[in-house]
Design goal:
CATH architecture of the largest domain: Sandwich
CATH topology of the largest domain: Jelly Rolls
Number of domains: 3
Number of strands: 22
Largest sheet: 8 strands, antiparallel
Strand content: 35-45%
Amino acid sequence: MQNDFETIIRLVEQKFNRGNARNWQNREFSDLSLAIRNKTKVYISVSTLKRIFGKVSTTNKYYPQEATLKALMDYSGFEFQHTQSKSILEPYKSKKRLIYFAILLLVLFFGIVFFTTQFKNTDKKQANATIELVAIDGKSPATVFLRYDAPPNGDSLFIDFGDGFNPEYITAGKREISRYYRFPGIFNITIKNKDMVISDTLKVSLETNGWEALAYYFNQDYEKRYYPIVAQDSLIKNDFFFSTKELNSFGIDTSQIVVMRLDNCFSTRYNADNFTFKTRIKRAPYWPVLRCYGIEIIIVGENGIVSFKFVKPGCSKWAGYQLSEKIIDGDSKQVTSLGIDFSEFKTIQIKNIDQSVSLIVDEQEIITDTYKNSIGNICGISYVFHGNGSVEYTFLQVGDSVIVNKDF
């Protein structure tokens, strides 16, 4: 068993391909945790991984829980490479059989009522974490201060901050924690144990002072910086656009895939299930190292979004749209109509009438679809460009009320 366990550790180390585990720092263990979660859907905390790889001393030889061990085996490919892989699980399976036999005896002695009650109590224990907002420092960027109370639920307790970055593992008990948000929007914060949400959702809204422009690198880590590419008051060009030379002057390495976003986040009492949006956009004809560019337009509601992602013709695998709970992407459905050449300005209209949405490009309707769950009040507009793009104007109206009317 010990030999098998050591083999699994070495296979994980080899697959992760970050050199000898003796030299790993906290960053490597955090990345390994994410890699295992992406492949196996099982969360293993950084502290547990450090114990497994001997970075944290223990009084006895450390062996993980069965679910953790199985995730390591699945990630490393151990079961496919070693015919004797079952042997390492035998102690766990024997233990399981004893537990099942004990449960059977309890059922025989105390009856099915007691057995059912125990399971109900267990469910309640799994869903009693709480999280609350303490304070918000700033607008965008902003630091959000939170207070949580989480039960002891094993190795996979973490907070999902709703910003698209890796979750942060936490310890049980009452604690306070802060999160630095690099860009504005509506963020849904929850506490999870593995794939189970065990707290109510805390909704945090971070607004801007008018329009805000940022740049960052594609798929970068949370620790990496965002670049403020222009002051809000200087968005007075004929259209919002920055050349690679200008971006270089902001300190941005344009030999990498750069993402630029333009946001205007605010609060209103206007329902986003009925609106008319109009804009004119284009994209620079060339960006180094980027072949399949993307342009995404997002109408932000307090409970959801309406968004469309356009791509270069031939790249529709990466295209898609989201209407509240409905998510359509090029992996599961043909969305070739969103493959559009934006080397010249095109007019985009999005019309939402009672949760029925139409996308119109240069007066041609290319998509119409519906959704069920209200996205609530309008809270903002965002543009996201892979590479650099250009926005000529933005118009947003609800009924007779004009919410946004901006010429860049």
